[in-house]
From TrEMBL:
Belongs to the LysR transcriptional regulatory family. One of its GO terms (cellular component) is protein-DNA complex. It comes from the Bacteria. PANTHER family: SMALL NEUTRAL PROTEASE REGULATORY PROTEIN (PTHR30346:SF30), TRANSCRIPTIONAL DUAL REGULATOR HCAR-RELATED (PTHR30346). Gene3D superfamilies: Periplasmic binding protein-like II, Winged helix-like DNA-binding domain superfamily/Winged helix DNA-binding domain. Residues 1-60 form the HTH lysR-type domain. GO terms for molecular function: DNA binding; DNA-binding transcription factor activity. This is LysR family transcriptional regulator. The keyword DNA-binding applies. Keywords: DNA-binding, Transcription, Transcription regulation.
Length: 322
């Protein structure tokens, strides 16, 4: 039998585990099968690589030599594969995988990436919550994602995932057009203490706990009636059921609906970019960031209510610390 790279992986696994039994568990093979494989590998190298010890196995002098040189070979082979993939990617770039929570932010992220990487193929994956998106970034299924963070319930960033803030977006409130508060320019959160609430999906108003804590800090407990609605359904419930709902500020006002800013912006979310260590767009984050902000400015001015808020000091709130 001729020694192969896979044999070195087996020897290194046993050496690292210090036990045939533990190595068999790590390699997900039966212990007798691993023992027989080690014996065949030892015959190939011409002598024992391991001897039994009180709590497992230890390396012989030959084993130490094979492990030392074998690790060098495995490392060099891994480096060969990594550098070869980079060269191949330059010649035939793989698609960039983008993601985020369902909503208007993903198309905006796509536009920013297209500006930074003209001609690049792009795929997208949308999820219902930020935890699922972060898991896809952690496992490198996504190269880049846009997420919303809420101050009272910030997400825990997985190891190896990078983050860059974009801006802070206020949460506005949608009311029926004939609501007693509909004629006001802005609302205080306490004005809504006696209202019945429709809670849109997490991507708009944040986790229910965040929303409730903010209302309780203002002195009241919100009366939730409808949960987890998508934005269109939430707006229909506002119109037909005479409820109110937190919505993103650039939402288009539909017939029978008005959208109002809240004094002091007590409800808001921080938009951020997140990406894995080896992201295909890691070296383009500055350009993507700039493109996203520029696109967001255009989005602001497509909404009369949001544009008015933005010009009246809202821009400083949104871009503070950006």
């Amino acid at each position: 039998m001729r020694a192969e790279l896979r044999h070195l992986h087996v020897v290194l696994a046993v050496a690292a585990a210090g036990s045939i039994r533990r190595a068999a568990t790590d390699l997900k093979i039966a212990q007798p099968g691993l023992t027989a494989q080690i014996r065949r590998i030892e015959r190939t190298f011409g002598g024992q690589l391991f001897v039994r010890a009180s709590n497992g196995v230890v390396l012989t002098e030959l084993g130490e030599h094979v492990v030392l040189r074998g690790q060098e070979i495995v490392d060099k082979f891994d480096d060969l594969c990594a550098t070869a993939r980079k060269i191949a990617d330059r010649a035939h770039p793989a698609a960039v995988h983008l993601g985020g929570v369902t909503g208007a932010l993903i198309p905006q992220l796509m536009s920013a990436v297209r500006e930074a990487l003209p001609g690049q193929d792009i795929t997208t994956q949308m999820e219902r919550n930020g935890e699922a998106v972060l898991d896809h970034v952690r496992t490198e299924k996504l190269d880049l994602a846009v997420l919303a963070e809420f101050a009272r319930t910030p997400p825990r960033l997985p190891f190896g995932v990078h983050r860059r803030p974009l801006l802070t977006e206020p949460v506005f409130v949608a009311l029926p057009a004939d609501h007693r508060l509909a004629s006001r320019g802005t609302l205080d959160l306490t004005d809504l203490a006696d209202e019945r609430w429709t809670m849109p999906e997490e991507s708009v108003g944040g986790p229910r706990s965040t929303f409730q804590l903010t209302c309780e800090a203002a002195g009241f407990t919100p009366k939730f009636e409808h949960f987890g609605a998508d934005l269109d359904t939430a707006l229909e419930l506002v119109r037909s059921e005479n409820t109110v709902a937190g919505v993103h500020p650039a939402v288009r006002e539909a017939i029978g609906i008005v959208v109002k800013p809240l004094v002091g912006n007590p409800l808001h979310r921080r938009l951020v970019l997140v990406w894995p260590e080896n992201s295909a767009v890691a070296d383009q984050i500055d350009r993507v960031h700039s493109g996203f902000i520029a696109g967001y400015h255009r989005r602001v001015h497509r909404s009369a209510t949001y544009s008015s808020w933005w010009r009246s000091g809202g821009a400083e709130f949104a871009l503070d610390g950006e």
